[in-house]
Design a protein that fits this description.
Number of domains of chain A: 1
Order of helices and strands of chain A: HHHHEHEEHHHEHHHEHEEEHEHEHEH
Oligomer: homodimer
Largest interface: A-B, 35 and 35 residues
Number of strands of chain A: 11
Radius of gyration of chain A: 20 Å
Strand content of chain A: 5-15%
Strand order of the largest sheet of chain A: 1-4-5-8-9-10-11
CATH architecture of chain A: Alpha-Beta Barrel
Shape of chain A: globular
Chain lengths: ~375, ~375
């Protein structure tokens, strides 16, 4: 069980040499795959899919059956933690996630408690264990969580938002209340990720999806600080193996040096970031993960291959790159384009290492 | 007519010393003002408001009657240019702008023509002239346009978008077609802004609202290049006065050095940018405009004042700062908070210059 047939992904996260650049795709088990939609229809809803360890295992493995991906990622929702805190997660038809009881009153905020992941999120730990068994050592399993700030956005807004006015009004008027939520979230996320590690996750990723909506100072005080708290509380090893961590702040390209300094093993890059500049800025402190524009996958196979090669050229063949998109894959992606992407990344990065790739076209 | 009572804004754009930091607010004539909503209701629709020079003049002046702002900005829509190209701009109830005939077919794209601003956009030039007369030299009038790329986003998508999939698919599959649209747009925007200058605009601003959605290389090739083309074609002087230009790419914080190098007089900053770092990166090549998080204005008056002082501290008292928000003002802003903001910026920046302000709290 502990012996991996393909540990390229884990080695790249630890900046060790690999024969090629490993890749996986954010939201790789998702609506662009007909088999995913079939399973989801069978489950009855997205939440039922998340709550069933066997169905979560089924969809986690679907993209791996189709494509030669180098990692699996736990299929789950990023809002499981606040749901376990009692906020009442639900999905309205055709809309994003919502909470029945968003946090608006001080007494509600003061009453927040850190959920025990084995008690309140046992279905996630069961899924992690079942996926690990089903993977049978083929590729590593990534566990994940939303960041403390990203969870707080949903918890205070009660839904997605285009201006984050409730959480930002709290930030500017009652920073003490927001800090309290973030303290609780940071402990909850740490416990949740450590439980995933104990249940079998071989790497963990923290999605700071909304940190990039913050003003530069507020980012440090209300998002980065709690990301650091989570990272410093993570188990570094399990079962004799290092468990690398990845931190991804979407829209955080201006703050890469600071993110790279919080102790994580790798930093995720969105597609607006120039990989060569990113590497120059963070030095060799961390691995980098990214960063193809997900919209490339809606173009022709030839464009997919060309853009993938550009990303690989920009990162160069040095150790410490995990190929990914700069954001989750679009549901409109033709599945055959993903096959082109996977094959191009594997073949071209092998060539780069043997010195036979094209010269980079310049920045 | 040519003598300005208050030219603080223009001098700050040219990095000349001023007694205090001038300010204006993006979308300052807008739905947060009850008098605006009253005029708009009288006009019947947003587009009728834009098409009537006298009503456009009325709403342009409304925020200046309430607040001691240092500039007026032409009230208009950013999509007037593609509308003049024949795409058929309309507003569906409760939704953003849409085009009846978005650009999808090659023949439609090849048929695009640069509109004559005096013929097809005469109502805008009439508004500029009427606003200048009504301002009677009190403060300068800013003309504006959307950037070539931002206009292309709407022209190809046919509406706003959260993933820009149509325009990005064109970018990756048929860059020649997108370049053709951008060439036409760049010429159209240049002519449009020059006509505004000839009609009385004393400074111009180019809003690159969606450039920040592009991958780093695509930004240079498909947005920045055409911004540069527009800037280099702008009239630098009119009526014996310099006409400064401001370029604002929302989400462009990573590319400030490149934006500052295209020949504009000032660069707009959104709220994610650290002003002290921005100044260090662009040197003294340009003035900087920004960058308070617009959501601050939804908080308490005390928070508004504190956050405004933080922005002023971060920019420091050196010449070359125009205070603004990092994005358009929210329709949910209480009008009294804008009064607090204006008074704080004027009073505190005077103190900064006399050396009596608080020391910056550090970055």
């Amino acid at each position: 069980m502990n012996r991996l047939h393909n540990d390229t992904f884990l080695r790249a996260l630890l900046r060790q040499p690999t024969d090629y650049t490993p890749l996986w795709l954010m939201r790789q088990a998702g609506r662009y795959l007909p088999e995913y939609n079939e399973t989801r229809a069978r489950a009855g809803s997205f939440l039922k899919l998340c709550h069933s360890p066997s169905l979560a295992t089924e969809v986690t493995l679907q993209p791996l059956a189709r494509y030669d991906l180098d990692a699996a990622i736990l299929f789950s929702d990023i809002l499981t933690v606040p749901d376990a805190m009692g906020l009442g997660l639900y999905f309205a038809d055709g809309e994003g996630p919502r909470f029945e009881r968003p946090l608006r009153e001080e007494w509600e905020i003061r009453a927040l408690e850190v959920p025990d992941p084995y008690v309140h999120l046992g279905y996630v730990m069961d899924a992690v264990a079942e996926i690990r068994r089903a993977l049978a050592g083929s590729v590593p399993l990534i566990g994940f969580s939303g960041s403390p700030f990203t969870l707080a956005c949903y918890m205070v807004e009660g839904s997605g938002s285009d201006d984050f006015r409730h959480v930002k009004t709290m930030l500017y008027d009652r920073p003490d209340l927001l800090h309290h939520i973030l303290e609780v979230n940071a402990r909850a996320v740490t416990d949740y990720l450590n439980a995933q590690i104990e249940s079998g996750a071989q790497a963990v990723m923290i999605f700071d999806t909304w940190g990039g909506a913050l003003a530069h100072r507020a980012y440090r005080e209300f998002s980065l600080r709690y990301l650091e708290q989570v990272v410093s509380g993570l188990k570094r090893e399990h079962d004799g193996h290092r468990v690398p961590s990845v931190v991804f702040t979407k829209g955080g390209g201006q703050w890469l040096e600071s993110i790279a300094a919080i102790g994580c093993d790798a930093v995720g890059l969105d597609w607006t970031v120039d990989p060569a500049q990113a590497r120059a800025r963070v030095g060799d402190r961390v691995a980098l993960q990214g960063n193809l524009d997900p919209m490339v996958l809606l173009a022709s196979p030839a464009a997919v291959a060309a853009q993938a090669r550009e990303v690989l050229d920009a990162f160069g063949p040095a150790p410490g790159h995990v190929f990914n998109l700069g954001h989750g894959i679009s549901q409109r992606t033709p599945p055959e384009n993903v096959a082109v992407l996977v094959d191009t990344v594997h073949a071209y990065s092998r060539k780069q290492r043997s010195g036979n790739a094209e010269q980079p076209a310049g920045a």
